[in-house]
Design goal:
single chain; mainly alpha; disordered N terminus; Autophagy-related protein 6
């Protein structure tokens, strides 16, 4: 029955290749080879350091087990900080020694920025937003731009003689009005998400086409000898808040304007005399009442956007003034701080 349960000799031969050799060859190897072949036996398991330490601890009367370096302590929080920052490709702890002193670039730049750098960052962000308005307006006027391009590429002789004036005017009016709608709806705001930016751009395009539809309806009424229908304003508090959201940049700017005064429309007293004359001439050049009302809404909405930028700049000036006062109290006033204090920069705006 050895074939059923296995033979110990067969098992030894499988584990020992020396036993498979011919007896004559084995005798020759034992005679000629200076080294004797020894059958390797599995080495016994070495006692772990933990077992030895436990034995010594029991001899000293210590019954508590030693603290483990791999296990988390019982009083530690369940959610521990990751071994590496999220910028690392390996989140399992590899190369953690390379990331132990890592600081994000934004944090380093924020810590090394001076008051002038912070103020310059606000101005640069405002200029970037103005450039982004131009790109968004071109995206909304892509059909008018394509019509002008097709006129130049494959227009008839009359269009070429007129320098494609018709499509060019349509594109320029679309670009100008879309830019103004974007400014009025808060596209210049520095604190906006991508979703809000998309909503503002879509709503500006919707307002422009609604303006064209109203102009066409008024022209049809004029040709037929009827009065133009009285429609609600394009930019109203209820419709704009419903389109952009109650927490949008437009809603915040509108709320800020309401706190400054009872009127949310166009107030000429808020502008300089020269600007007042410009606004009056601009309104007088418009033919219809609807165009004048829309122009006043756009001017008032653009002012709300400018007030937000002005408040942000004033905040930076206030932070700079506090920093200069702190350095002066600690006896570390610089030459620039002294010059600004002599020229009266430390005084508040209301003084």
């Amino acid at each position: 029955m050895g074939w059923l349960w296995g033979d110990s000799k067969t098992t030894d031969q499988q584990t020992d290749p020396y036993s498979k050799l011919d007896p004559g060859l084995r005798a020759f190897l034992e005679k000629e080879s200076p080294l004797k072949y020894e059958v390797t036996q599995p080495s016994p398991a070495r006692p772990s350091p933990d077992a030895a330490s436990n034995e010594y601890r029991s001899q000293l009367g210590w019954t508590e087990p030693p603290p483990s370096t791999t296990q988390q302590p019982a009083n530690a929080p369940s959610t521990s900080a990751p071994a590496v920052p999220p910028e690392s490709l390996y989140q399992d702890g590899r190369y953690a020694y390379l990331w132990k002193n890592y600081r994000p670039r934004a944090e380093i730049e924020a810590a090394s920025q001076t008051e002038a750098d912070k103020l310059r960052a606000v101005i640069d962000a405002y200029n970037d937003r103005r450039a982004a308005i131009g790109r968004a307006a071109v995206e909304n006027c892509v059909l008018e731009q394509m019509a002008e391009r097709e006129c130049w590429e494959s227009g008839n002789f009359r269009d070429m003689m007129n320098m494609c004036r018709g499509p060019g005017r349509q594109f320029m009016r679309c670009y100008t009005m879309q830019s103004r709608f974007l400014k009025a709806l808060g596209y210049l705001s520095l604190e906006r998400s991508e979703a809000e930016e998309e909503r503002i751009q879509m709503h500006a395009d919707r307002l422009y086409h609604e303006m064209l539809a109203r102009e066409a309806a008024a022209e049809e009424a004029r040709k037929s000898g009827m009065e133009a229908p009285v429609l609600p304003p394009l930019i109203s508090k209820e419709s704009t808040t419903a389109a952009l959201g109650a927490d949008s940049a437009w809603a915040e700017a509108h709320k800020r304007t309401e706190e400054l005064g009872p009127s949310t429309g166009l107030n000429l007293s808020d502008y300089t005399p020269d600007r007042q004359e410009q606004i009056k001439k601009q309104l007088a050049s418009l033919a219809t009442r609807e165009e004048r009302e829309l122009e006043m809404q756009l001017i008032a909405a653009e002012r709300r956007s400018q007030l937000e930028i002005a408040e942000r700049v004033q905040e930076r000036f206030a932070e700079e003034r506090k920093s200069r006062e702190s350095r002066r109290e600690r006896g570390k006033e610089t030459v620039g701080d002294t010059i600004k204090r002599i020229w009266g920069w430390d005084q508040d705006d209301g003084k």
